[in-house]
Each structure stands twice: as C-alpha cells, then as structure tokens.
Amino acid sequence: MRSPRRRVNACNPSPGRALTCQAGGPARTSNEAIEMKRQIKIGRLLAALLLVGSLAAACGTTPATTDPTPTTPEEKEILAKQLGVSVKALEAFEKASVELDKKAPDLNAARGLLEQALKESPNFLEAQYNMGIVSERLERYDEAIAAYNKTQQLDKLNSHSTKVLLAIGRAQSLAGKSEAAVKTFEEALRLDPENIDLLNSVGAAYLKAGKPGEAIEFVKKVLREENENVTALNTLAQIYAAQKNQSMAVYVFKKAARASLNAYSEDEINVEPAVLVLTDKVKLEKVDGAQAGDILNNLGMMYMQMGEMPLAVYNFDAAAKLDPGDVESRLNTGAIYLQYLNYDGARDLFSDALKANPSNCTARLGLSASHFGAGTRKKAIENYDIYLKNCNAEDPSVHYQLVRLHEREQNFDNAIAHCNLYVKHGEPSGDPNDINAAYCKSLESMKNMANQPMQPAGEGGEGGGDELQPMDGGEELQPLDGGEELQPLDDEGMEELDGQGGEELQPLDDGAEGDGMEPLDG
C-alpha cells in the first residue's frame, strides 16, 4: 500500500529571487507549501486477492495460493466465464497487470487498458477496483471514489467489504474530505475492529482532519500490538511535527525509517537512514521500497522545515532510489533547487517527475518555473500554457508570469490577455510598477508604439527631408588664428619654447642635494 500524494501550491520564481508560492493567496516559502504524506496507504496495484476471492466465490473453493493468471485460450475462456466478463476484457486486464507490475509503471497506459476492460465488461469487479487504485495514484481522487463505490455495488457477497471501505475512506481523505473519510473508516472498523490497517488509516485520517488527540489513540492501539509498525510510527512522528516538537518528530521518523529498512545493527543505528540507502549499506531487495521511500520523504520534509537543506536532499534522493516511480521526492528536491537557483537541476527533476506522471500539475508548474528562471522563455511559455489548459486556467500566479514572459518576447496581444486575466483572478497591488489595471493599459500603449512604422529621413513629418546644415548660415567651420592650420612642432619650435621660459628644464638628480624638486616644507 502507498501513502497519499502530498500537494504543493503553484510556485513561480523570478530570476534572482527565492521561490515563492502565490496560488491565489499570500506568498509562502516552499517549506510551508509542502504537506507530509499521511500513511493512509494505497493498496498494491493489481490486488490479486480480489481476483482470487472472486474465483473462490464463483467456484465454491478455497482461494488459490498460486498465480491465477490463465495462459491458454481455453483457460482464459473458463476464467472469463467464471468472472462473468468477456475474453477481451480479461486480456486487457492482464495487459494492465503486466504494466502495473513494473518497477516504474506507466499509469496512464494502465488506465487506458483498464478502461478497455470496463468498456467490454462494465461489471468487471477487479477492473473497477484497480481503476480506483490507478486513479488514486494519478491524483484523480473523485474518479477513484467513484470507481470504489462501483466496486462496492458489484461486490454482491460483501466478500471484500472491509477492503473496499478502506479504499473509499483513503480516497476521501486524499480528496480533502476528512470527516467523510473518518466515518467510512469507522464503518469498516465495526466490521473488523482489530484490523491493523484500518486502525492506522483512522489515526491518519483524524490527524489530517486536525484532530491529533484522537489520532494518537489509534496509533497507540497499533503500537501496543506491533511496537515497530512502520505506518503507526510514521503517523506518530507527524503528530509530533503537528505539535511543533521537531526533535521528537525527527527521532521517530528515523526509527520508522530504520524499521522499514530492517537496519537494526549498532553500526546502522548511528548512521542517517538515507546515507545507508545511498551508500548501499542495506539490502534493498528485502525492503518495501515504496514504504521506506515514503518515510524518508517525510523525514526530508522535516529537515526542510528545520532549514537543514543538505539532509533534506539526502533523504529525497534516497527515497527516489528506493522507489524509481516516486514523484514526490523529485518534486521536493526540485523545489529546493528552485529556491537556491539551480534551475538546470530543478528542470531535470521536474522532467523526471512528468515522465512518471505526465498529468502531475505540480511537476508541470515546477518545470515551467525552471525554464523561467533559466531564461528559456519559449519553453516556459509552452509549459505554463499546458498547466493552464490541464490544471488551473484561473491561476493568477501563472498569468502573472506569462505577462512578463510575453512582454519580453514583444508578444503584446498575449501579454495584454494574461494581464487582464491576472487582474480578474488575482489580487493586484497598488504599486505602479506592479501588474494591475493601469499596467494593462500601458501594455496597450507599448503595443501601439511597437506597431507604428518608423519614418525614413526625407519622408513625411514637419521639417522632414531637410539636410543638416552647417552652423553660421552655412559657413564652414574655420581653423583658429585666422585660418592657419595647426602645425606639429619642429626642432626650431622646441628651441623657441625653451627660450621663452628663460631656463632649460633639467631632470631630477637624486644624488645632488638642493638640485631638482625641493620638499614641500622648504
């Protein structure tokens, strides 16, 4: 299971200035813009247990322990019939399974395959459930909730009710519907009161709802049963962070990280968990990379809040190494690079994040800001336009940046359009040098000036065509002294100069006292 995706506000740096976040509100630093990832974890993609459970219900047998994926056409037909779906739907589902089983899956490709399966067989329970998980990973939370609700309706025997309720509550929490999430989790707990995953999820949901007191009660229940439960430790650390107890938050995050890395030796305990990962001191094949990456990402954000940027970057890099498909660690490092004006490094990280999730709005905004800071204006405009089209067409901070970019490119029509949109959706200041209604009008004047053709000499205009005349009514300038030209001095001239002074100039004599220049005091 994965934890939810944290969000960052629209961040746009001006060249030579620190990163600020201006998405419809007061400017904030990048540290304040990042929310820690709650460990209401997302279920593993392609929940095989659901598929096996459906087979058991259809066949009346104990769930199989082997891989149920059919290999021959005959087996596919039998399984499709048992599930009540078409063979085409089953094949599309299998292709999605292959894609999602990759270390860094293409979530959009998997989504497309699941859509094919559901188009063929709308009541395909497993495809609906996995569509919810993929939508969650793509941060389409309302779509995830809809897919899970459909799964719940299709689960006629209620054989997966707790699992599906857990998924619904998780998606509700990620969508910001904290109260609804708490109610859903409590409904699931009534069905399975000792379920550790549910207890963890309720605790995390209460924490996200701003109720750390209620959250800690559920965390304690888990830790009494499993004193090194990684998810519970992560939530406990976040409770300390919410209470501004940074030292305890860091301590518990480190404990959670070591537990997730199975790093318990004396040598390992005295080393930063991120360093263990980056220097290959732990056996990563035995580690749940997604879970350990989440913990290190949270620890990195804690260091960001404390101003410990190198340690923050170590943890984000370690998280990316543990989970190559992770987007958040790249976004966080990219935000730090933007703040410290490393535009090329930020650009590479945001580009990597977009490869993993092309629809990630924060990554798109970060890439735009990186190009803006690096001075690659056309690329910045291109990416800001994509953001406005696919993410938030009214984002005032983006319109603000596009005014500046188009103005520098002399694209005044576009600059004026974005200026008006900024005035409409933003909060312009009264500063005459800032972008406001008056500034938009000045852009109109600049446009008119730029469009006015230049007149060549001698054509049009009052006095045009007259050649420049010499001064004094046309008389040429005359040399001084009645017209005699200045001549270079010859030897005779030099002698004449010598004679006028009375004495010939003598060089200074360092050795003769009284000769040459005298000291000032006489």
Describe the structure.
With 522 residues, this protein is mainly alpha-helical. It has a domain at 37-221: Tetratricopeptide repeat domain (Serine Threonine Protein Phosphatase 5, Tetratricopeptide repeat), CATH 1.25.40. Helices cover 60% and strands 0% of the residues. The longest helix has 17 residues, at 289-305. The N and C termini lie far apart (96 Å). Residues 1-67, 459-468, 470-474 and 494-522 have low confidence and may be disordered.
Could you give a quick summary of the protein structure above?
This protein is mostly helical. It has 25 helices and no strands. The chain has a domain of 185 residues: Tetratricopeptide repeat domain (Serine Threonine Protein Phosphatase 5, Tetratricopeptide repeat, Alpha Horseshoe).
Layout of secondary structure:
Layout: H1 30-33, H2 48-59, H3 73-83, H4 87-100, H5 107-120, H6 125-137, H7 141-154, H8 161-174, H9 178-191, H10 196-208, H11 212-225, H12 230-242, H13 246-261, H14 266-269, H15 273-278, H16 289-305, H17 309-322, H18 328-339, H19 343-356, H20 361-374, H21 377-390, H22 396-408, H23 412-425, H24 437-451, H25 491-501
Helix pairs in contact: 3-4, 4-5, 5-6, 6-7, 6-8, 7-8, 8-9, 8-10, 9-10, 10-11, 10-12, 11-12, 12-13, 12-16, 13-16, 16-17, 17-18, 18-19, 18-20, 19-20, 20-21, 21-22, 22-23, 23-24
